[in-house]
Amino acid sequence: MRRGQLAIVAVAVALLVVVGGYFAATAVYRPTSGQTTGGTAGPITVVAAENFWGSLVSQLGGTKVNVTSIVSDPNIDPHEYASNPADAIAITNAQLVIVNGAGYDSWALEILSAESTPNQVVLNVQELLGQPVDANPHFWYSPNYVNDTVAAMYRGLVKIDPADRSYFTAQYGDLNASLWTSYMHQEEIIKHLFAGSPVASTESIFVYMANATGLNIITPTAFMKAMSEGSDPSAQDVATFENQLDGGNTTVRVLVYNEQTVSPLTNSLLALAAKNEIPYIRISETIQPPNFTFQAWMQGEVGELQDALGAVALGQ
To answer: 95, 54, 88: which is closest to 72 by C-alpha?
Structure first.
């Protein structure tokens, strides 16, 4: 068991009782129009632009799907991914394609717009969620958005292969339960124990998780946006961030950084945090390590966040 978690077992049990109906409230099916594709002779061919969505649809589809995740290299920034002919072939031949949208995987949308595959089902997460193109694209860090997306994946699989609806329904229930027990309940525990705690983040990737855990990001919004887009933040925003870190761990409880987009400025901020006894944790754009499931990856990151907040609270 992780350090600090023994002390909150009682809280965890209480929260499980209170929020036990969480999935019933959030995993709501949106109505889908159109006819089914009439079934499939073999496993459904699925292409996910990124491995976090690929992991979820693979677990949901089980033996009834064959999933290819295109962006999965932990050593690259997904924002900068450039597609290749193999990607185009995979997307064109897929029965179900899942893209993130919001400018995160424009290369995939360009391939889709250039091709026309009969009866292909396309799930654009940004459009599903009703978000604008310029929204923060890191939707997978929001538990509510994950629930909505998994529900849409379920509907897509049933539309393609209605004969296996009962199988997909069972898989859907198992996946929802796993998501809740693995990390979503941990986020509720953090919210109960540390809501309102001031934290810092080098990029906007952490915003949705901060919202889910009730933490207060005090980093200048413009700083996070610039870093996420690969631009230089203003000197004023840099100075503000550095002053916040100089305030020590009463001003900033935890610093969160994106390990896939580390820059000299990031390293400078991490050193300043360490100097002022502020713990820092890393999160990533894609599943780390790549062979983990989505929920195992999330559980690790949320657990580290919980431990860091707990260590500060205990004066460690």
So the answer is: 54
